[in-house]
Amino acid sequence: MIGLSSYAGVMESLVNSAEDQQRSSPLGNSWSKKEDLNRNQGLKGVGGFVLVHAGAGYHSESKAKEYKHVCKRACQRAVDRLKAGALAVEAVAAALVELEDSPFTNAGLGSNLNLSGEIECDASIMDGKSLQFGAVGAISGIKNPVLVANCLLSEAQKGKLSAGRIPPCFLVGRGANEWAISHGIPPCPSEKMTTKFSLSAYKRNKRKMEVAEKMNTGHNQTKKIRLSAENDSGCLDTVGAVVVDLEGNVAAAVSSGGLAMKHPGRVGQAAHYGCGCWAQNACNMNPYATAVSTSGCGEHLIRTMLARDCSAAMQSEDAHQALLEAMQNKFISSPFLASEDCVLGGVIVLRCCRCVEAQNIQGILGATRQQSNADLQTSSWGY
Amino acid sequence: MIGLSSYAGVMESLVNSAEDQQRSSPLGNSWSKKEDLNRNQGLKGVGGFVLVHAGAGYHSESKAKEYKHVCKRACQRAVDRLKAGALAVEAVAAALVELEDSPFTNAGLGSNLNLSGEIECDASIMDGKSLQFGAVGAISGIKNPVLVANCLLSEAQKGKLSAGRIPPCFLVGRGANEWAISHGIPPCPSEKMTTKFSLSAYKRNKRKMEVAEKMNTGHNQTKKIRLSAENDSGCLDTVGAVVVDLEGNVAAAVSSGGLAMKHPGRVGQAAHYGCGCWAQNACNMNPYATAVSTSGCGEHLIRTMLARDCSAAMQSEDAHQALLEAMQNKFISSPFLASEDCVLGGVIVLRCCRCVEAQNIQGILGATRQQSNADLQTSSWGY
To answer: Where does the signal peptide begin and end (chains A, B) (predicted)?
Structure first.
């Protein structure tokens, strides 16, 4: 088991995919500062960029290879779409589908089970070009929640429904499932989405809960809190991706099975506007296009609206410093999380500005370290 | 029928309730600018303030008296709680319960029915002191959704659950209903929450939809869009309240049955962090405590995060001007709503700073006018 700050990040530019791959970072303690990589090279002709992660959380080291592979496959899927002329929003959805389809990630297939032993997923997607957003929360029986979120986004772009009704941007629960099926997204029986791994994790977590609750009986509150911290086995590994396409449009997406043993109906940051992902093209006021996807404890990421705040911070000149400050001031030291004993979260960030017919792109990852409120690791690349 | 900008606002200070009542504004076209009332009187000894509204939307003029009465009752409930020493968050919840219990408002009892003829409610509450937040989305079978949101907020303040699990801040659908009942909130059969008024509105809307869909068949898209605008009969009247207590703590809450004929599972701004309500006590960085509650088209209010942005704007010296600018720049002219032909929304805002043992309080209402993207009405009072 390794710490929260373990991200699986793989990126590929459309031109220099071979060179990029050697910079890809597998799971592990390799997220030490790499400030020397924070350069803006502004290579002429380089276009398009994909950055994905398989989540902040407690991963099994034995599966490190799998995580790396799925991240590479997700990148490749998105890159293929970009090469075929797709917009960023289509490419980011394609990357997410690959991440959701892996039984090793906590999204789609193989998601954490909730208290009742069911799978309920959250996902959202944002298109930096249209600034449209689509999200689903606590949705069951759908293998690829990101496709429902993407379909909501597309439908909203078509304008009003009959009799002037405004199309929804956020659907939850049974209604979300029904809407998805009525829009051509195939249902998937819950038993097919449950893996041996997720089921055994559920049984293990349930036993832990029972032991914790038994031990707490008759003990004082101090002991209860201490025990709770020791047994913090919630798997936080939301997956996400950020993409810039050949035209400089950005998009971001996020998908999650949510916390292990969550209460049915609990919705985390992955379905929450401004919290799970953010994408905003460059415009008059913002010189940089930015895309952000977050991972970590959903409640912490909701209450700090980390995706939007990181995006706003990335308009500063020094992207690396801006992300460090945003993670420190808007998350780790946020007054909204002052009562929390351990603040857990991470982001992948992409920013892009066009310079003389080329794209100047930076991708950065930042995350809190496990068991610490005052530390931050970032890694970054410039293209 | 009257326009979107019709708010029912009633407020009472704890000391000068008689004087305040004559300034209360019933439904109607009385929301012309009242800049002369935008004074900071800083009365010594005046403490506590309650501001409620029964929603932006299409109200029947025949029920204007009822709306005014329910707003007064809601204010009185909150004032009574404040007089008994309650904190702002308890008082604001009490006001919301009264608003939800009215069969005339689109919240709790008498809520709009969705496409399937069911009631699904959204509600949220935020405590400016602890900065905790609780929300429920698409919840059925609970008469007072705000009490579930408030219970989520209270439970989160108690710290982690067994085995280190993080308590949820946002629950939806069936899971939210089950959580509420397991926490002592009584269930309420759907048929008891449906009123004659909401049922007849549902039947009327359904007929309109059928006619609109029939007329659209065989016609071109232009005609379809025009027809849609003409038949825009969605009832937008979310209810809300903002409160400051004797200690200067603020709280805000919002509750809604959502858009009429919404898709099942649709969640609007009333359950969305930063969008439906916001409350933040004064601190080192913010001289003013602020509380905001929004009403209008949920999708528009989500995509602009209007509650949080209005709260941030209210740190400017001139509260009235700050709200005007926030409504204009962050909502009406927001790039996030550039594709919308009609932007609909309103806010109630309260800000407070302590000056020489007294509270300097301002309450302001702002709303877009019906069928206009570039107009704004505000009313404000200073105490």
So the answer is: none
- B339/A262 touch (CB, cutoff 8 Å), yes or no: no
Question: Phi/psi at A140 (nearest 5 deg)?
Answer: -115, 160
Q: In whole angstroms, how far apart are CA A335 and each of A339, A374, B111, B302? A: 8, 14, 36, 23
Does A383 lie at the interface with B, CB-CB under 8 angstroms? no
Spatial separation of the C-alpha atoms in residues A254 and B282, rounded to whole Å? 34
Structure tokens at A370: 């496990």
pLDDT in tens, B340-377: 888 888 999 999 986 656 668 888 888 786 544 444 55
- How far apart (Å, rounded) are the C-alpha atoms in residues A38 and A24? 14
- Assembly ipTM: 0.87
Closest CA to A139 of A148, A150, A131: A148
Q: How far apart are CA B184 and CA B54, in angstroms?
A: 27
* Token pair of B290 as six digits: 């602020």
Cα distance between residue B299 and residue B344, in whole Å: 10
Query: Are B170 and A267 within 8 A, CB to CB?
Result: yes
Residue A172 to residue B261, Cβ atoms within 8 A: no
**Model confidence pLDDT, tens digit, residues B228-267:** 433 334 455 789 999 999 999 999 999 999 999 999 999 9
Q: Sketch out chain B's domains with CATH numbers.
A: 3-371 (3.60.20.30)
Residue B238 annotated among the catalytic residues of the structure: yes
> How many CB atoms are closer than 10 A to CB B223?
12
Residues 129-158 in B contacting A (C-alpha not used; CB under 8 Å): 130-133, 137-138, 156-157
Instruction: Report the C-alpha gap between B26 and B65 in whole angstroms.
Output: 8
B295 in Cβ contact with B242 (< 8 Å): no
Smallest CA–CA distance from B334 into chain A, residue? A131
- The contacts of residue B345 (CB under 8 Å, 6+ apart) are B56, B294, B295, B296, B297, B300, B301, B304, B306, B331, B367, B368
Kindly provide the residue ranges of all beta strands, DSSP E only, lying in A2-147, ordered along the sequence: 10-13, 49-53, 121-127, 133-139
In this prediction the pTM is 0.88
B168 touches chain A (CB under 8 A): yes
Q: Which of helix, strand or coil describes residue A312?
A: helix
Single-letter amino acid, residue B92: V
Q: What are phi and psi of B26, to 5 degrees?
A: -75, 180
Interface residue of B263, B275, B300, B344 to substitute, partner A, most A CBs within 10 Å: B263
Question: From the CB of residue B56, how many other CB atoms can be counted at a distance below 10 Å?
Answer: 29
Q: What is the DSSP string of B64-104?
A: HHHHHHHHHHHHHHHHHHHHTT--HHHHHHHHHHHHHH-TT
